[in-house]
Structures
1.
Amino acid sequence: MPVLESSFTPSALVRAASIQTIMPSIARRVSDPGFRREVLELPDGDFLELDWLTQGSSRLAIVSHGLEGSTASGYLRGMAQALSGAGYDVLAWNMRGCGAERNRLPSWYHSGQSADLRLVIEKALSCHKGPIVLVGFSVGGNITLKLLGEEGARISQQIRAAVVISVPMDLAGSAAQLADPRNAIYMSYLLKPLRARIREKAERFPGQFDTSGLDEIRNFREFDTRFTAPMHGFTSVDEYWEQSSSLRFISAITVPTLAVSAADDPFLSPGCFPTEQAQASKLLHLEVPKHGGHVGFFTGLSLKSTWIEQRTISFLEPQLVRPTQSGFRAWA
């Protein structure tokens, strides 16, 4: 499938990548769509907070947020409302420590923690018998792609399609991109809640976290080397990034998948745009609008809805009523 031509055409007033990236995070306010909270206990003694938005639909969308986001993030609530309006039940989940309650273990979540999404899907399969689609933003999109590739042809036939948005498929490349001095404002913004997370962990788990020099950490290589990689069982930051990058898994995906990333996304390196893999695949669709920033994609000054919400729905709908191009499964 060749790279798709995009219909996203923002107003000149909001075309800049910085506006697309920053404005929604500071100005978009989306009310709680009516989520019902459920706690999912995990085999290792931790838990996940799941938020359901249901209307008795036969179709379910599982939505994953991005780095240090949650089901309270405006982009996730906006997507949940759009999907609900299009006739989907929605299951949005908070990664470990991202919900209302602090998670129980010294570890938290990381960019390749597909095992937790797998448990969320298993929970959904236990109580929902109709078609299921997956939607993921940024790190949540990376986890979604990684899971789809890991499962390959073994994936449940109820999983019909996926849409991922602004995904750092190459974690090492994305980290280097954000470490560029031109992106210092974004790096500072992302590190602030991560530093707070480490301080909170250090208070609850004395002796397991060294917070000396924490404020001097300036990029993901430094942070992930000191904290994320060792706390999640990786021998080095490079092993963590290599094993967690969805880029190495996407060739094994067996359900129709749309990946949308803006060409001007300040978070993404060239390796996050898998043009050759998409061209060689019948199932991976890559759409690269010229503009959109990171998880932006709004057309004008109004932030009530975004283009990406409608684009997600327009891609998913046909996948629920016709076979895949590979013919691997018969759709309901």
2.
Amino acid sequence: MTSEEQLSREEALAQRNREIRWVLWLVLILNLLVAVAKFGYGTLTGSVSMRADGVASLFDTVSNLVGILGMALAARPADANHPYGHAKFETYASAVIGLMLLLAAYNVGKDAFVALTTDARPVRVDAGSYVVMLATLAINIAVSCYERRRGAELHSEVLSADALHTMSDALVSVSVVVALVLVQLGFTKADALCSCVVAVAILHSAWEVLVQVNRTLSDEARIDPAEVEAEVVQVAGVRACHRVRTRGTEAEVYLDLHVLVDPAMPIAEAHAVGERVERLLAERYPQVVEVMVHLEPDTEIERAEA
């Protein structure tokens, strides 16, 4: 990769980080408004499920702050101690969001258990309850869809994790609306039972986030090796390709592979073949930030090690 291409790549990553942080700040403000509305009205009317939903939304705002901090750290350039850069701080931020979801599930489940096993004060359900819940539900769905779309466009783990967090909040809101209807119909424990459903939904979201985190931290392959091999063998001068390995985040993938060339090929010509392979893979996979090509003579020994 030339110095101009490297500079262009760094500028693109910096722009990506700025866009992710902007999305997180916007979502933070909306989540804070939603949390205050649900928790406040739930406290006023005595609704455990509505108050629990407010707590879940409050955790959304904290997760936004974690994401913003994680992206600020991930944006730092590579240095002597971090030669591969700081991209995994975005993954660490996603892991914290997953842990916060677990904590939110615990808090909601605890409140639901207390409500089921004690004689809590009656829940008041009025028109205001439905207005608050339906309005905040619409905001949550819109925010989650927006975050999921931007997360896919920017290959952002933290936005994808936060979108799941926000969608879990939307599912919680749906269960709260159901609880309010059942309470009005005379099922007094419906409010607490729906809070239990809320806790399970949050746990499921936590699991999805942590699975994604594990993919990055365990260096799971990001690109199908067979697909890479099929691309590389089309390059002039390449006889075979094997030992394809990829790792990294969705947005920053590191790729290394072994390329077999004619044993009699001059070093300069073999080097040119390697550069053609690098350019091809950089164009074919925009998320790849570095390609390491190991040139090997096409011998029976090398073929046997494929």
